[in-house]
Amino acid sequence: MDKMDKVEQLEQNCWTILSPGEKEAVHKFSGGYIKFLNESKTEREAVDYIYGLALEAGFIPLEKCSQLNPGQRIVMQAKGKVCALIILGPDPLEEGVNIVASHIDSPRLDLKARPLYEEEGLAWLKTHYYGGIKKYQWLAIPLAMHGVVIKKNGEKVNIVIGENPQDPVLTIADLLPHLAKEQMEKKMSEAISGEGLNALVGSIPLDGESKNPVKGYIMQLLSERYGIEEEDFTSAELELVPAFPAREVGLDRSLIGGYGQDDRVSAYASLQAALEVTNPARTVICLFADKEEIGSVGNTGLHSLLLENLLTEILHVAGIDSYLGLRRCLAKSYALSADVNAAVDPNYPEVFEKRNCSFLSRGVVLTKYTGSRGKAESNDANPEFLGRIRKMMEESGVCWQVGELGKVDIGGGGTVAQYLAYYGMEVLDCGVAVMGMHSPFEIVSKVDLYMSFKAYRAFMQAFK
């Protein structure tokens, strides 16, 4: 095969190279993923799902480990929003580890600290959007409320309303087209304001209440069902997410549509890979982080000391308490930033440079750099590391492609790669192509999901 044929091979639809048995495996794998999407619409729910599955698979909580041995499988979670699976390899930890890092937060609408109010005989909830969204996409769709409320006495109340078919849902009404002439003449970014994303929650007044009776009735319902009062919203973390389930898309059932696939598609693929890894070439950390959609900030994002603290704990159990040992471990590590890229959408050809962008069903995407405005805030992976990853992909039978996020001057985006590279480790972005990214109903290809799972498994098991 000459060089041109090799490039053309990277542009083929991955379904064409699968055997009937492999196609069956792809569909079966996707069934588990759809279940994960429907049960993990928030980062807290994702951590509960991942942590529970790890315990069932025999992983031991880190705090219960008094020593480390090759082949040992460990799990940790922090603050209910971060989780990690660790599989010990034979090499000393100072020689580095293999990290696959995804994020489990997704764009959504968060309730404000004082969200409930009444206006024009209706009760509403004020929101503050989280991450990059097109605000108009969140109007006129059913919304579910997920999250936790921490009461003054420390009691934690879990809330999920809108997922059961018998549940009510919330919504943000749109303006009727008959009165929307001025609205439709505005820029899309200005037609809907952030302060206009107020969710409708009720219209029945409370008997005997003269001031804000509809708001009073909503609080009565919340008090009866959850034992919370209005002040408890101050110490709550409540999110509005699409109430509809993830579904197979296409008459051929080749695609998956659903909320939160950026980046829970990578989280699920890497989770399943970690569950299958035994006796890896060197220690593996499968990390699930928070806050990527708002810059990886806070104490649960990778722009914090999160990874350092985790490795320090592992090194301590291994009997290594030196600062030098930690620094060497980090600098000699390899990492895949398991995050998605934008799939070419032929409805919008003007924003994609097709020679270098990614496509649905052409395999997992290797993204050398993200960023914007001349690769700003990007990792820009070293070619030596890329070359080794290419070799690993081909030896493992992984269908892959290259991609970048649209045309150079159109826009851009970032991942956790730059925060991992800060430590000196080699890092590459590696994930699936997503169509309609950050919308309430994102689209991925089943075969790309499966190829990302194979890629992460190969990296965890044998890469050294």
Structural overview:
With 464 residues, this protein is an alpha/beta fold. The strands form 4 sheets. The chain has a 9-stranded mixed beta sheet. Strands 8-7-10-5-6-9 form a 6-stranded antiparallel beta sheet, with helices on one face. The chain has a 3-stranded antiparallel beta sheet with strand order 11-12-20. It folds into 2 domains: 3-106 and 259-462, 3-Layer(aba) Sandwich (Aminopeptidase), CATH 3.40.630.10; 108-242, Aminopeptidase i, Domain 2. It contains 12 helices and 20 strands. Strand 7 (143-150) and strand 8 (156-161) form a beta hairpin. Helix 2 (20-39) crosses helix 12 and helix 8 (306-317) crosses helix 9.
**Basic shape:** globular
- Average pLDDT over all residues: 95
SSE class? alpha/beta
Domain tally? 2
Q: What is the C-alpha radius of gyration, as a whole number of Å?
A: 23 Å
CATH level-four homologous superfamily name of the largest domain:
Zn peptidases
- CATH topology value of the largest domain: Aminopeptidase
What is the tally of helical segments?
A: 12
Strand line-up of the largest beta sheet: 1-2-3-13-4-14-18-16-17
Second CATH tier, the architecture of the largest domain: 3-Layer(aba) Sandwich
Number of strands: 20
Unreliable spans are: none
Assigned CATH class of the largest domain? Alpha Beta
Could you tell me the strand content as a percent range?
Answer: 15-25%
The span between the termini is 28 Å
Largest sheet: 9 strands, mixed
Residues in helices, as a percent range: 25-40%
